[in-house]
Write a structure and sequence with these properties.
238 residues; Immunoglobulin-like; 3-stranded antiparallel β-sheet; 28% strand
């Protein structure tokens, strides 16, 4: 492979011996379309002897009879960009990517701060300091189940609801609220009431794999109480 220079526009080209042999040493500049003899303008001495100098009418004959060969010999200019080594990624890009990864990790940490504090209570003050906020117990409605419940009339007046809630997770969860619905014979809701977490228990959380028992007392209007035949209860987080 040789490098030749166009005498008209000084553009450098890479040419192979096969191309030179096919076109009898003549090439056309891919930039200015000037036709010249490549061997006379090699950058380094050629490995093959230069073709004999053509007669005065060689360029015209070359264009007429060797047009396909010249077309095959045309190459793109060899620029400094082709030979330049690849530039490594700037350090500022690497630094910016590292900051972005750290920011995403911090956001994920803050989003899971309640769960992390429940799994590792020793992390609670650290997490609270990082987010400058209160770290609470995780709210996981599917973790708290109503193991048993009952609705009875209190002999001293009013009604009593007794519940046993169980945390099925291996870490503490926040104490939920309770929605109690009293129904009639047609299973239509007559009365609906919500009991807060504070009314269910004095604690703000349920220990891992532990039960919490709760007893609720309330009164009903006589007209309503006579129609009550059933109840529904479920826990939730407001």
């Amino acid at each position: 492979m040789h490098i030749t220079h166009c005498p008209q526009c000084e553009t450098a080209f890479k040419v192979s011996p096969q191309q030179l042999e096919l076109a009898k040493g003549w090439v056309r500049c891919g930039r200015c379309s000037h036709v010249f003899e490549a061997a006379l303008h090699f950058e380094t001495p050629p490995d093959m002897p230069a073709a004999p100098l053509p007669s005065a009418d060689a360029p015209s004959l070359f264009r007429a009879a060797m047009a396909p060969a010249i077309a095959a010999a045309e190459v793109q200019p060899s620029t400094s960009a082709d030979r330049a080594p690849q530039t490594p990624m700037p350090l500022r890009w690497l630094f910016g990517a590292g900051l972005l990864v750290l920011a995403l990790m911090f956001q994920a940490l803050m989003a899971q701060r309640n769960w992390l504090a429940a799994e590792e209570p020793a992390l609670r003050p650290v997490l609270s300091a990082l987010c400058a906020c209160e770290v609470t117990w995780p709210r996981e409605p599917e973790a708290v189940l109503i193991e048993s419940s009952s609705f009875t009339e209190n002999p001293e007046g009013g009604y009593i609801v007794q519940l046993r809630l169980k945390n099925t997770q291996h870490h503490p969860v926040a104490m939920p609220a309770l929605e109690l619905s009293l129904t009639d014979l047609q299973d239509q809701v007559l009365v609906r009431r919500v009991f807060t977490a504070n009314e269910l228990s004095s604690k703000d959380h349920v220990q891992a794999l532990r039960d919490v028992r709760s007893t609720l007392n309330f009164e009903l209007d006589d007209k309503v109480s006579k129609r009550i035949t059933g109840f529904r209860a479920f826990v939730f987080y407001p």
